[in-house]
Hints:
The protein is mainly alpha-helical and 173 residues long. Helices cover 53% and strands 5% of the residues. The chain has a two-stranded antiparallel sheet. Helix 1 crosses helix 3 (39-51).
Amino acid sequence: MKISQKGLYALQSMMMLARSYNEGPIRIRDIAYEENLPEKFLELILLELKNARLVESIRGAKGGYRLRRAPSEIRLSEIIRLIDGPLAPFGDAEQLRMLIDRDDARRALYKLFLEVRDSAARILEGTSLADLITKDGMQIESGHSEKGKNTRKKKTDANVLPMAMTAATASHD
């Protein structure tokens, strides 16, 4: 299983929407700024998430994007499969099962790949957005003051996953 940069961006944006679940819609510009994501690319990702009915868009001055379901009801496996396809190292689980049945010489290798895929799937299917935003004492952030003024601050690169930083750095070299 390989998670693309697009997949990481989708997960980052979904985590932000989950943290702000009870605060109303968030503009693409705000998501892009806070998560340090390219705005135009984020637009395409959010459209894909909207078409899959994971997020919804709200029009108007106070519009933006928000989750369609509670963060506890959205599994990471849904997001990753939507953006990056099957969780298997190559192909999908059914393809691996066919290879196990047909290729005696490499059966043990394909069985191992299937075990890896099944373990990853179990973890991703058992982990919701709510699990991610509350792990390790991380609290759901409120980005609005009592007067309704946006008080969110841009995150630094230290908050980005190391593998996302590596991929982002490599793409700029």
